[in-house]
């Protein structure tokens, strides 16, 4: 299995304050920011100038399935790896002891799945996809 690190996702307490810090203080460029109603949260993706390094900021409301009360040590949210085959890569990780955290899902242009590594850190696998999310009824 070949995997390419795409970005690191960290959990933040205050999205506006965090975006300002990473853009105004550290000079990162905001690539995108959106609310995600299905998970009751918000994300922002930032890029470090002159590199391909991406940082994703994640905030979850108390209604989110990803919400946990804030305490030291919950800052690391997930690592995202690009793979050629999401289902095959997930099976490989599961055979190595990773635990699946849910079913595969679609985001704009990507098929994704989340697993936990041996330390409990979420590892998100993604592959480019032309499939579209099913419409809500």
What does this structure look like?
With 137 residues, the chain is α+β, with helices and mostly antiparallel strands. It has one domain: 2,3-Dihydroxybiphenyl 1,2-Dioxygenase, domain 1, CATH 3.10.180.10. Helices cover 15% and strands 41% of the residues. It has two helices and nine strands. Strands 1, 2, 3, 4, 5, 6, 7, 8 and 9 form a nine-stranded mixed sheet that branches. The protein is globular and about 40 Å long. The termini are far apart.
Question: Which properties best describe this structure?
Answer:
single chain; alpha+beta; 2,3-Dihydroxybiphenyl 1,2-Dioxygenase, domain 1; nine-stranded mixed beta sheet; 2 helices; 15% helix
The gist of it:
By secondary structure, the protein is α+β, with helices and mostly antiparallel strands.
**DSSP strand count:** 9
CATH topology tier name: 2,3-Dihydroxybiphenyl 1,2-Dioxygenase, domain 1
CATH class categorisation: Alpha Beta
Largest sheet: 9 strands, mixed
CATH homology superfamily: 2,3-Dihydroxybiphenyl 1,2-Dioxygenase, domain 1
Helix content: 10-25%
Approximately what portion of the residues adopt beta-strand conformation?
35-45%
Uncertain ranges: none
Q: What is the H/E order?
A: EHEEEEHEEEE
**Separation of termini?**
37 Å
Number of H- or I-type helical stretches: 2
> What number of structural domains do the residues give?
1
User: How large is the radius of gyration?
Assistant: 15 Å
Secondary structural class? alpha+beta
Q: What is the CATH architecture assignment? A: Roll
